[in-house]
Design goal:
Order of helices and strands: HHHHEEHHHHEEHH
CATH superfamily of the largest domain: Outer membrane efflux proteins (OEP)
CATH topology of the largest domain: Outer membrane efflux proteins (OEP)
Low-confidence stretches: 39-52
Strand order of the largest sheet: 1-2-3-4
Distance between the termini: 29 Å
Helix content: 55-70%
């Protein structure tokens, strides 16, 4: 019976097939640059080296050693990541728990019992002396439910899919943490850039303040010029101080991400680089395989499909094979004799004839849960496409804005130089210089903010593309 059950058992329920995406997968992103034209011969394909693809340590694309060092500390000390790792290990351990159903359960144990019979039993014979006796036993039992209908196999399939989904969740948490750290870091560097601009403006304002004071003493300027110059200096100084609030908060956030108290991390000032790296964008079809959240949704769909098989298996009879054997004796000294040996073996099959519709409801519930997971998977695919398109569009538009702002900064600097020359020549009042100073500072700070936003957009695009993750990173959980 065991051999027949092992080799002829079937597996009920639908076999899993990956759900199709919502509609046809586009061949290219809307915001992606068009591919180069084919060669005239039509027989050769242009080389496409993989050096431009995203790798596991994608943050190294930015070429910042300090960022690289901070990112490496996440894997060691970040507590949120440790939570996700423990949750993955917990899910992975469910696989051997489910796989244990393939095998019989074996129990063994000794027992010793002292019995005294009652004198007041219904069948007691008056005048007959009842007695007390001992029973010593060493018993073993084996129970096995052969997986005739595939319930155990479906359970293992479900546990493995859940473990793989948890592994993808872990990759998603890691990607989110690394992205958050990179964004915080470049925003901090962007604030350092703004502080550098403000400090440079302060030095210029000091010179203008001294100039207006000298011109006032010489009778060339008025007290209004001095007051305006002093107001400008105090205002810019307040802005420089205010930058420190946001910078301190970002530094504290980075400290938490790398797993240390804020008091133990200090990041020296370093303005952000102007050059933003080009992020290689994959084609949409590969996006379905490189996003951890999409992979997690697909694996949970597989787990939901396995649950249907588990529910359907409940319609079939439960077959149990059992065997019991051991030693039993009233005297401990004769327990290990051949005459004390006993055993029994048997099989049983139990079929539920009526359960008030419980199995039917559970099967419908499993099918509904599967359809919900299919919809969740397709929605995650749509969200993935949207996020990539959003960030590609943001980078394209920000690049255009950066060019326009660069021209505005050059014009503002030229305007300030002309106004300064006119003021020193006595042609105009200090108000013209003050206006030109304000416009230049505003444009320079706007330029610094655009650079920071371009870095943040690049990181968001990397996150939307799945970073350097691939499905091969999923554990087999075996």
């Amino acid at each position: 019976m065991a051999a027949v059950a092992l080799f002829t058992g079937c597996m009920v329920g639908p076999s899993y097939q990956r759900p199709s995406p919502p509609g046809p997968v586009p061949v290219a992103f809307k915001e992606q640059p068009p591919p180069p034209p084919p060669l005239a011969s039509g027989t050769w394909k242009q080389a496409q080296p993989s050096d431009g693809e995203l790798r596991g340590k994608w943050w190294e694309l930015f070429g910042d050693p300090r960022l690289n060092a901070l990112e490496e500390r996440i894997a060691v000390s970040n507590q949120t990541l440790k939570v996700a790792i423990s949750q993955y290990f917990e899910a992975r351990e469910q696989v051997p728990v489910a796989r244990a159903g393939y095998f019989p359960s074996l129990t063994v144990g000794p027992s010793a019992t002292h019995t005294r019979e009652s004198y007041n039993q219904p069948n007691t014979v008056r005048g007959v002396t009842h007695y007390q006796f001992n029973t010593f036993a060493l018993q073993a039992q084996a129970l096995w439910e052969p997986d005739l209908w595939g319930q155990v196999r479906r359970t293992v399939e479900q546990a493995r899919a859940n473990a793989e989904a948890s592994a993808a969740d872990l990759a998603g948490v890691a990607l989110s943490l690394h992205s958050e750290l990179a964004i915080d870091y470049f925003e901090l560097c962007g604030l350092d850039t703004q502080r550098q601009l403000l400090e440079g403006t302060l030095a210029s304002d000091i010179d203008f303040l001294h100039l207006t004071q000298v011109r006032l003493a010489g009778g060339v300027a008025t007290e209004v010029d001095v007051a305006q110059a002093e107001t400008q200096y105090r205002s810019v100084k307040a802005q420089a101080i205010d930058v420190g609030v946001a910078r301190a908060q970002l530094e504290h956030a980075i400290a938490i991400l790398v797993g240390v108290p804020p008091s133990e991390l200090s990041i020296p000032s370093a303005p952000v680089a102007v050059t933003v790296p080009v992020i290689p964008a994959a084609v949409p079809s590969t996006l379905l395989e490189r996003r951890p959240d999409v992979a997690a949704a697909e694996r949970r769909t597989a787990a939901a499909n396995a649950q249907i098989g588990i529910a359907v298996a409940a319609y079939y009879p439960n077959v149990t094979l059992s065997a019991t054997g051991g030693l039993d004796s009233g005297l401990l000294g004769t327990l290990f004799q051949v005459s004390s040996l006993f055993w029994s073996a048997g099989a049983s099959a139990v079929e539920t004839l009526f359960d008030g519709g419980r199995r039917h409801a559970l099967t419908d519930q499993a099918r509904d849960a599967y359809q919900a997971q299919v919809a969740a998977y397709r929605q995650s695919v749509l969200n993935a496409f949207r996020e990539v398109e959003d960030n590609l569009a943001a980078l394209r538009i920000l690049a255009e804005e950066a060019d326009a702002e660069s021209s505005a900064v050059e014009s503002a600097r030229r305007s300030l130089a002309i106004s300064t020359k006119r003021y020193k020549g006595g042609v105009t009042s200090y108000l013209e210089v003050l206006t030109a100073q304000t416009i230049q500072l505003a444009n320079e700070r706007s330029q610094a903010e655009i650079v920071t936003r371009r870095y943040a957009g690049s990181i968001q695009l990397i996150k939307a593309l799945g970073g350097g993750w691939s499905p091969s990173h999923l554990s087999s959980s075996d």
